[in-house]
Automatic annotation (TrEMBL), chains A, B:
CDD domains: AAT_like. The keyword Transferase applies. GO terms for molecular function: transaminase activity. It holds the Pfam family Aminotran_1_2. Gene3D superfamilies: Aspartate Aminotransferase, domain 1 (3.90.1150.10), Type I PLP-dependent aspartate aminotransferase-like (Major domain) (3.40.640.10). Residues 48-389 form the Aminotransferase class I/classII large domain. The keyword Transferase applies. This is Aspartate aminotransferase. PANTHER family: AMINOTRANSFERASE (PTHR42790), KYNURENINE_ALPHA-AMINOADIPATE AMINOTRANSFERASE, MITOCHONDRIAL (PTHR42790:SF19). Its cofactor is pyridoxal 5'-phosphate. Keywords: Aminotransferase, Pyridoxal phosphate, Transferase. It comes from Lactobacillus nasalidis. InterPro entries: Aminotransferase_I/II_large, Class-I_PLP-dep_aminotransf, PyrdxlP-dep_Trfase, PyrdxlP-dep_Trfase_major, PyrdxlP-dep_Trfase_small.
Amino acid sequence: MLSKLFAKRTKTENPSRLQGLFPESNYADNISFGGGCPDESLFPSQALQAAYQKAVGLEKSHSFQYHDVKGPAALRDYLANRARQQGIANASADDILLTAGGQQGIDLVAKLFLEAGDEMAVEAPSYVGALAAFDNYEPVYHEIPLEDDGVNLDYFEEQLKQHPAIKLFYTVPDFHNPTGITMSLAKRQRLVALAERYDFVILEDTPYRDLRYHGESLPSIKSFDTEGRVIFLSSFSKILSPAFRLGWLVASPEIKEQLVNLKLAADLEVPYLAAGTVAAYLADNDLDEHIGQLKQVYRVKLDAMAKALKTYLPADAKISQPEGGFFFWVELGDEIDTRQLLLDEAVPKEHLIYVPSASFYPNWDKNNGLRVNFTGSSLSQIDEGAQRLGRILSPAQLQMAI
Amino acid sequence: MLSKLFAKRTKTENPSRLQGLFPESNYADNISFGGGCPDESLFPSQALQAAYQKAVGLEKSHSFQYHDVKGPAALRDYLANRARQQGIANASADDILLTAGGQQGIDLVAKLFLEAGDEMAVEAPSYVGALAAFDNYEPVYHEIPLEDDGVNLDYFEEQLKQHPAIKLFYTVPDFHNPTGITMSLAKRQRLVALAERYDFVILEDTPYRDLRYHGESLPSIKSFDTEGRVIFLSSFSKILSPAFRLGWLVASPEIKEQLVNLKLAADLEVPYLAAGTVAAYLADNDLDEHIGQLKQVYRVKLDAMAKALKTYLPADAKISQPEGGFFFWVELGDEIDTRQLLLDEAVPKEHLIYVPSASFYPNWDKNNGLRVNFTGSSLSQIDEGAQRLGRILSPAQLQMAI
């Protein structure tokens, strides 16, 4: 009844991209390849507990007071140093904005650049949470297909010629969500050149960047940026813990200044209890050593999932070959509707959850793909879950389901 | 250079409402009446520390995992019960949305209702953080003047007749920020009737509601709501601690459902380490007993500030008479520019900070008022700070300053 007062952007007729993304399942033997959860047995819980005690000990009752929108200087110094190590020359603590997880970084960048009708480009498919954030600013989307070495830049350049008003491009270049694809070095360089030539800004979202299990790391897109056109976004969620809701971005002063205003209007400040704890953890522990431990475990899981999918899925299923990150992507025949299969077959019959492809596309119009996560499951769950997925996708079963 | 790509809403020519609101001061004897800070000696630090340990003990390593956008059921049950005790009939845990402080509640409601050019009404003056949030959605503001018993509803109804598209009204009815004014019972009832008649939604922002030091508590506006037109917003920031960044709102299912989508797109979830800690605190402690202790201390401070302002300020200064909350409001002759006085006199010469009035008005056009906080200062700072303010505002001094 009151919905007639809602802003136009509130498209009540569309499903929510994030609410209900994972169907409920109460089966005791349910296996979820759905979320993007780290393996929680790898959280350095004791060190994080000690870090919390240290953070509160440092500020005592002031720990529970208001703080500010900047967050601890030591944490921003650490992140600036890390950015410089990753080839982002001259990054300083003043260039760092701490955000409520990477998600808030995406939302604030969207809010800074996008007005209803503004044009932006996204990889197709794209991270569902990013699309959920962008949707609220009502952009006109241009979808750029992914290839095995990243976004199709020939196609993108054609789009830029036809649509010179494109002002923002969102990409997950390292172990892309949902596909696991990594953008090649040559494409990273050419992408920056395109941004300069066609005057747009790149949001480089890199939550999985440090989690490479095979092959050699590539320079960030931001490392080729000379005009302040690239916003580098990352997060502690995958490499330390999602519970602190702590992301960060590196942006030029012109952009960062405005993002600070938007952050203030959104939630006023960086929570000290979270940011102070992470700062204390980083002072007393070696994050890269911890990441090394994660990589050892996740490498085994990635290899197990690759093998299991190849073993159990039909030969014509196209399976991505990620070298890191959290996800595999599976593409099936055009006649397959993976959302219907999820609700009718996977959840009730096989007790398996994955994420169907539609919500990863701006217009919800590709139904024949699915994303599977491997970090949050045990090795036996990976094997068993892939077997179940294989049964769901077997030609005989599909015939019945369609 | 890249600012030409920013959304129209990014008004780089305007000052930021929140960034730089409090000028820096490094004087050792600086007194700040600026922020809205609780007295941090009153935080129940030990109980909060114990609550954190309990929360982490409950979930162990899962504490550091992703959680969800709902937050702990026990906390929402507690808040629903509290809402019912305050006259919000039938409030259930499902009607509660937990937010990143009250600020996020304001921002999400603005995002749900306001499109560029949409019309809304605000009290004049209004909470600066709310205006900062609203600004980003580019509403057309209608300013409704405040009287000693709350917003001028005769004037408001005239505006509603002339501008029937007004869809949202924002109010702080209890110990208003910045003025300290409380809306009368009769006006609360009539306001709901106006909302029904002229078809708008009320955002009732009540962070100070429980902090009444004199007189009798009044029913919330939401308690008169029969059509789901009132969104009741509150926060733990003033009654427990701002560090958890935990607010909550009570809204009808139609509205709450959409706010959940917007919350997901903004930052994905309610942080467990914060919400779980507050839930554990509430399970083991009596919040109302704690609030009773706050009120004892703040009542003495309020009385001291009232007396000091009356003693030291010029006789023609109009000083509000709050019965609770955090703030007094002072209005001076139209020729006074309190921002200029702050920067030229108060900070450098008297080592005193207050908040000048301009940023509390949608159009920054009233310069002759100022807000002083009394909860964050000691009794001696209250007396000394009011003396300093009296010197700055003395007729002789003002003559020189103008």
